[in-house]
């Protein structure tokens, strides 16, 4: 769908030997940072669009080639708001390029609800690592209207996608260079939802599953991934009816646990694992208090061998689970079976994953000490031991008791999201803040995506706003 861009003309008979008959320019899906260019040609040819901003030393960008057609549609995604752009239509015939004369359009300002969303500040006498300016942060607004943002280190929104009736509860960037998310209503809990949406960087829907379709019957929460086969992997709420009279409960009481579910793109269940398969709830002395959300799984990821890593908020542990047998390989944390250094006194973890150095990295909510931090651990599965590679505490002013994430930007800097504090920070390995960004939305996490993963849709801009 294309909305006409204000002030943009419709061109006919543009040249290139009269091959180009008509050009229409407008907004793609009513998004101010996606400009759609529709081109009609007199015969089937290969064409693409070159475009650049009307600023000094502006970099030129090319769209992918539309091949052997008379109706061509392009989406220009590397757009800054309120900026004049020039563009050419480039035809390719028999290895020869022909460039049309230069046309122009002006992008709109961002809507008011998208202005002043992020306020970034670099610490005094600090030079940010080059890697930090070579990528964008993925941020999500969890309540309706839901918004997914890609934001640069200056706090500029470089890309966004909005949905009216639901929020983006959780969102991840996939190996297929798509955005995969859990959608949920405002009356659903923080990171829980009942829809799965996958979109590409043009904002086009690739997959949309709703609870009730196929085997998708459960409420899902906290995590959404794609495995190497392109299948959907998520956490779900698993309910078990139990006799809890021995601890003062009902004869038919309900305990809410967590599970891992793998589905194909039609919603057919291919694999299911439940915490009830490996742990008896009755061994939990606090079960009557925790039965409504017994373990509270809050992240799921893969180890380098393809097995699962799953973190739990309520018992403060991170488990490694065999992806084929469902057997728990290890439990890391208090009461677990991996020996920990005394300094590794984390309480509640989020966003557990294997970082670029092969270490188990996670955000430590630090509930007991009322101070959050970050750990990166070397785990030796054979000896059941662990060593601290990196550990730092965040300033107490940004203590973040729930949610949060921490991801390496390079070997010496980490991007940390303190969701409850509405702030994202860049720190060195000692926890010194190098950069901060206040956010208008309490994003669940802040992922970091390098430009090479976003190419050709988003690249560094030579302008700021």
UniProtKB/TrEMBL annotation:
SUPFAM superfamilies: YVTN repeat-like/Quinoprotein amine dehydrogenase. InterPro entries: Arylsulfate_ST (IPR053143), Arylsulfotransferase_bact (IPR010262), Quino_amine_DH_bsu (IPR011044). One of its GO terms (molecular function) is aryl sulfotransferase activity. It comes from the Bacteria. PANTHER family: ASST-DOMAIN-CONTAINING PROTEIN, PQQ ENZYME REPEAT PROTEIN-RELATED. This is Arylsulfotransferase ASST. It comes from Mucilaginibacter ginsenosidivorax.
């Amino acid at each position: 769908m294309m909305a006409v861009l204000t002030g943009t003309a419709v061109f006919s008979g543009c040249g290139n030997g009269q091959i180009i008959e008509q050009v229409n320019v407008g907004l793609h899906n009513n998004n101010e940072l996606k400009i759609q260019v529709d081109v009609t040609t007199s015969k089937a040819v290969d064409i693409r669009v070159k475009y650049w901003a009307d600023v000094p030393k502006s970099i030129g960008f090319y769209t992918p080639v539309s091949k052997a057609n008379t109706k061509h549609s392009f989406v220009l995604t590397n757009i800054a708001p309120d900026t004049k752009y020039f563009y050419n239509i480039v035809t390719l015939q028999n290895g020869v390029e022909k460039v049309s004369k230069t046309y122009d359009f002006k992008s709109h300002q961002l809507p008011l609800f998208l202005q002043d969303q992020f306020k970034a500040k670099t610490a005094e006498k600090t030079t940010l690592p080059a890697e930090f300016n070579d990528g964008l942060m993925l941020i999500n607004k969890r309540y309706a209207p839901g918004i997914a943002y890609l934001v640069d280190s200056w706090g500029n929104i470089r890309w966004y996608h909005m949905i009216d009736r639901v929020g983006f509860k959780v969102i991840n960037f996939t190996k297929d260079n798509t955005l995969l998310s859990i959608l949920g209503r405002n009356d659903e809990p923080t990171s829980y939802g009942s829809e799965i949406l996958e979109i590409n960087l043009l904002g086009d829907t690739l997959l949309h599953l709703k609870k009730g379709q196929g085997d998708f019957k459960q409420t899902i929460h906290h995590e959404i991934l794609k495995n190497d086969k392109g299948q959907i992997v998520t956490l779900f709420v698993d309910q078990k009816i139990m006799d809890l009279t021995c601890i003062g409960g009902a004869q038919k009481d309900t305990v809410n646990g967590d599970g891992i579910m793998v589905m194909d793109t039609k919603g057919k269940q291919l694999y299911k694992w439940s915490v009830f398969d490996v742990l008896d709830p009755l061994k939990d002395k606090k079960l009557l208090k925790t039965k409504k959300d017994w373990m509270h799984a809050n992240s799921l990821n893969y180890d380098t061998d393809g097995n699962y890593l799953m973190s739990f908020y309520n018992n403060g542990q991170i488990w490694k689970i065999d992806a084929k047998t469902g057997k728990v390989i290890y439990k890391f944390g208090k009461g677990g079976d991996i020996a920990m250094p005394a300094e590794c006194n984390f309480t509640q973890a989020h966003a557990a994953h294997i970082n670029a150095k092969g270490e188990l990295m996670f955000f430590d909510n630090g509930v007991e000490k009322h101070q959050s931090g970050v750990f990166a651990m070397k785990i030796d599965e054979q000896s059941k031991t662990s060593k601290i590679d990196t550990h730092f505490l965040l300033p107490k002013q940004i203590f973040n008791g729930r949610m949060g994430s921490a991801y390496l930007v390079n070997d010496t800097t980490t991007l940390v999201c303190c969701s409850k504090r509405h702030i994202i920070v860049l720190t060195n390995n000692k926890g010194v803040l190098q950069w901060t960004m206040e956010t208008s939305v309490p994003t669940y996490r802040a992922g970091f995506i390098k430009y090479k993963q976003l190419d050709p849709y988003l690249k560094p801009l030579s302008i700021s706003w």
